[in-house]
## 1
Amino acid sequence: MTLPDGWEMVVGLEVHTELLTKSKLFCGCENHFGSEPNTNICPVCLGLPGSLPVLNREAVDFAMRIGMALHSTVAPSTFHRKNYFYPDQSKDYQISQYDLPINSGGYLDLPDGSRVSIERAHLEEDTGKSTHLGGSGRLAGAESSLVDYNRCGVPLVEIVSGPDIRSAAQARAYAAELRGILIATGASDGRLEEGSMRFDANVSVRRSGEPFGTRCEIKNLNSLRSLQRAIDYEALRQIDLIEDGGVVRQETRHWDEGRGETSTLRVKEDADDYRYFRDPDLVDLAPDQAWQDRVRAALGPMPAERRAVLVSLLVDPSEAQRDAVEVVIDLGLERYVHAVAAASGDAGLALARVANELAADVENVSNLTSEAFVTTVSMEQRGDLSATQAKRVLAELLINGGEPRAIATALGFEQLSADSLGTTVASLIEANPDEWQRYREGDEKLAQFFIGQVMKLTKGQANGKAVIAELQARR
Amino acid sequence: MRSATQIAADVRSGASSAAAELDASLAAIAARNDELNVFLHVDVEGARAAAAEVDAALARGESVGALCGVPIAIKDNLCQVGVPTTCSSKILEGWRPPYNATVIERLLAAGAVPVGKTNLDEFAMGSSTENSAFGPTRNPLDPTRVPGGSSGGSAAAVAAHMTSISLGSDTGGSIRQPAALCGLVGVKPTYGLVSRYGLIAFASSLDQIGPFATTVADAALVLEVIAGHDERDSTSLPEPSPSLVAHVNDGVAGKKIGLVRELFDGADESVVTAVRAAADALGAAGAEIVELSLPELALTLSAYYLIAPAEASSNLARFDGVRYGLRVDAPDVTAMMEATRTAGFGAEVKRRIMLGTYALSAGYYDAYYGQALKVRTLTIAAFTRAYQQVDLLLGATTPSVAFAFGAKTADPMAMYLNDVFTIPTNLAGDPALSVPFGTGEAGLPIGVQLLGPGRSEAGLFAAARVLEIADGRP
């Protein structure tokens, strides 16, 4: 989407990501999504009187990994209390980091070559989850509310970007790239639908070259699509407002996915005064050099680097292949492509099979060994299997594992012998004299027609390249 | 009343039993609890079970810890599994913790028998135990007077010989001041020496749990049992429990002790006389007495009454009616929280929550809370300077002996001033104790205060023991 002439949007994102620690941030309770409500709880995360928080070192590891992947500086940090009353917050304050976050500064490079600065990436605890019954489904007006404290105390890292983003598409690309990094660090599973990552977008608009306008914050966007749509909507709303002579109020806004619009949640004057102060129950966090070095050493390559390596295996990669590379990196499946390349196989063919067939059944890839994949691709490359047959073999391997040749045999995928293929082609030429004539006269498109007919007659068992060879031999 | 040390020895030797000691304690409670309002809850069943366990272990020939069969009273802001824990507040009435405070676990492991929960100023906010939602506690030495506070119930339990020892908590003097007013030894340990896990927080950066006892040796014994690193408290010091009892009779020969003007100036004449007499006694025992001035201490009361309420305003937010304790129903959750907190908290708690909320508010933080933190830094520096010159400091614990009910309730400032001598060490995080020394008006006891640098408890006990002997309790 493009904005009206002369207008520019300025966007900064705050991304909350849950960390994949075994236990919660300040207690030993299991950090697990989807348990029965209020089963992963203890005196500490329930905020029972007299309980005290003790920092989980694994969460610090993950926070540092994220910071290092974002080129941040890991610095001595402190924990503060953010005070506000809400039923799903068991202590009625949230332990977060304030003026001294664990990670400061940094940047994230996007695939299009643009760079978004990172202001900070700090540790904090998640709240519980409220379900409001009756009314609009929000707290105000609800008849009753249920609270699940399983999520209360789950570790989060909040990653705050600079106000460097200039379009909703760029915001989406940033969020997607960040997701890839979080997955690559092992800090997050990147499952947006489970709330593993949540986005807040600060959006303002200005006429090009003018100072920043007043910003509005859109809270709790939980998909890339919502993020992009909400930002576009909000920027246009602000432009319309200003062009009609209005003034943008600094406020927090809610995105309604169904209606596709944002609405006022609260204006700045009503904003809570969080009364931040150092949490006296916790001590300063200052990971020493040895700890930082250990974390850095364990950090693998980030998606941008992995994409570049994969692209380098392709000869003159097309746009579609570049998209396929993104999919494969996103899913962390590039080892299959690398295995084929290492066996001097066709990396382009391998990429296509991974981006399509493997990506479609990603839950089962553990059944598929690299060796089996390499064998399947080489069988297809040699013409022992047609594309359709290779896909079937892969599907079978993903479900049950096994040996590709044995599966091909069991499925009856004996390649048609040259003799019987020749007979089939000859009979088709006879039955379709006009098409044959046009093909002979140089209309190459008709090769596809004959391949389609052969496939129909042979129920997909023929190899396309072999058909073309037969056709050309008779031309 | 026999000392805890003696009781433990008698139970261990078979001259007595944990059950018999508990019976004696329960009888003493029954005799005076209605009059004095010391215990909010007597855990007869739990105490009998704990005593029976000690006796059974002894019968099996097993060794039992240092507090073998000794009944002990627990301030009602410490969590004990299944035992009602109220902080003397209506907002927690009926709440039974599902877990033990670390100190409770250590007491039980040492063979102690917790007999019940003692009264306090609501959420430990006060200096007279008049702020309890369940009525004031009376001073056993003169029931027309307060026992001090906020650990007034724990002090009164020992003063009334209901138990030989008890636990309190000290945020600005809440152990030392009632110890002084009830004629007991009371100790505020180094911050972090005793785990706060299970202590319902008033002001987390100041709170410490400590013992009341009739003798210095008993106080050292209890502290040795409850002290030492606890991984459940991030602010817990890393070292194991120090050796204290072994050093009680080390004396003060060769020690330098500073008599700090700001720690007795303005006190009643009898108190000043007692402090000077204590200095003489320590001098006679071989210490060198140096008169000192630490002018920064004049600022500490104001700083304390910003820092402690600020932390309290956050610590007490969780009492919102959602999960436990009192809930006053209302049409929506915000109104429910307001109604619950309005009905559940007493006037002094509300006053401090408001003070603290204000001190942390945007626009006021720097002028109030921020300034108070600077005073805290200055206070620490002042003590550090003092301890470069001397080993320990000496002063008064309170400006006067126990005062009458209602004497200071009308004027919060007058009540707050009662803590003027005890507050500085809480801000510094250093240890201090109060030990009885002489008497004042109406023959009531006076406490003198000994202060030392972090982890100097052994030295404090040794000096206190010198004063104990000089005061006629060999």
## 2
Amino acid sequence: MATESLIPIAALTNLILGVIIIILANRDEHRMGHKRFTALLFGWFLIFSGTYYMALAMIEIILAEPVSLGWSTIVFGTYELTGDTAYDTFVLMAFGMRAGTYILLLAIALHYPYDLGSGDGWNSIIMGSIGVYCLVVPPLIIFTGFNPAAFQGILVIAGTVIWLHIYIRSLVHEVVDGDETARSTGKGAALLLVASNGYLMIWWLSTITLFNNEWFSGVLSLQPESSSIFFLTSVNLFWISGFMSVLVLTLGELYRSYKRSISMVSIVVFFITVMGFMNYFSDVVLYDILVSCYEAECAQYPVAYIVWNTLTEGILILLLQPLVLVYILIQYQLIDTSSTENRNLLRVMILLLLLIISSAFIELLQSMIPISQMLTAAFLAIGVAFFIGWEEKITAWFVTTDSDGDSSSIIGDESISTLFGKFTMMMSITLIYIIVFCCLFTSMGVGA
Amino acid sequence: MDFSTVFELVDDDRSNRLTALTLTVTLLLLAFTTFDLAKLNNEVRGLVEGENTWELSFDLESMTYTETTILADGEQRQFDFEIEPGQISDGYRVGEILITISYTETSGIPFDPPDSVYANIIQTSMEAQWSDENTTLSGSSNDASDITLKLLTYPDFDGQAQNITALNEYQALQDWVMDGFGIGTCSVSVELQTQSAPFTNDGDEEITINVEVISFKVNANRV
């Protein structure tokens, strides 16, 4: 039983959403500069993520099977060049794009929900840092044997600490001081933590019980040389970012649910917490496979685990992430949802997102359980009819639920608008630069 | 540049204390998990880069089936020997099957020459190395000497100790712990052609088929 890959769907979703968001952000010339810039950061994050998934999707096409290259290979930099030009090119591209997403996430953390700095100098430094990072770090990772990719855990933990502090502060103000407006920023920080660290958060129990280390020791056994303590620390920076996010958000949402009421964010957080338990138990069951690379021959995961992993981690990382980002964009009115022109594009964006996700989910189910195509086609038709019939209400739900309150909680530097054109140009160039660099690097036979 | 928002964010002692606690826990956990991973890394590298030569030795056991029968001149008969998992000791696997067909000239007639016997191991569904060069599937005799046939069942088995390279005992043993080989039916076909002295009639012969199933248990010791 083979499961369909969600990676091409994620690539398509992220790229389309990224383009629409960048168009919308550049169009709203009369809106708050800070919100527009945050929307631009979201857009470029989705473009880099989409290109990252596109590279992985191309690898799937080359291999003619779902990608065997786990995300940890890119995140922790445990890749070795194969000498296959096309394969290596796309893997290098994935490294480059991943580096771009890290710096963009940190930039988002510095701008949203709170704009931590203001002034032309600050904004120029942020934009310049993103550009320099995208120009320097991908080649550096490639030329230094990929392991330094793990050092980017510092960016992840930095963003995590910022959002966690904002969440804690909002929680204290809301629940202890009774400041009803404080929830808005806390909710934003919590959602961004889920969107950025979700793939790490679902392994929280395996992190604290050291099962992640057991698993990673199998990866270490395949490394040509002993890994440095800096590398090992960086690896754990990722896991700890996920664990601390779950710990703080779960305790916070439990406390808030007890004192106030349960919310959508609480449900998402609790779901991830429960998923951490499930993943831990699967780790325990699969312990022999986790350590098989050095206790025996590297063994493959059973199909049941792959199905579970696709339905949880796959959907969380690949499909929930863009959904959460779009929700934040609209809820906090980072893009203008009032004008008719934007409203139409917004409808397209929401419907597209929902349709892609639901059709992908149905296809995924069909690949895993033996239900006939007629039945899944019928389900899809029901979904399409529902989305079209309820399009107005769905869009309204995205746009209006507390969005005025949420929107007003986001404040920041307004002087930034003059730099938008330059930023868009710079990001376009860095994107092309990374792709061209990777193609050149492998086609010149380096690493062959 | 204005960082007033940063100061605003850290103006509340209660949330600062909670964040400080969070950061402290983060650092402690980071140290704890990294220490564990470093320890695992050392163990793994010790395995990967350490002394990796292992001596494999084999404890052998044998099980014998014997069947004696009288074949008529020109008769060809098939003898089946069932080898079942329950007959093999725990931890042992069938390495090879040695088959000896023996007979003597029993007519008692003076100057009666020995008969001719042809023997074959018939390929069955038993997992074995049927086409291995160390496998002898057929043989014959016309001087009353024993016919020896051999079916190598376990790949590369010769019962001799050997040195190999492997990361650990588990991997060293991997090639020698496969199940299924040598289990099933071992069929031997025997044909008799009697040789008679002039004016005599030697119409049959007693044939003894001896099947020895050699099983092994492997041991690995670091050299």
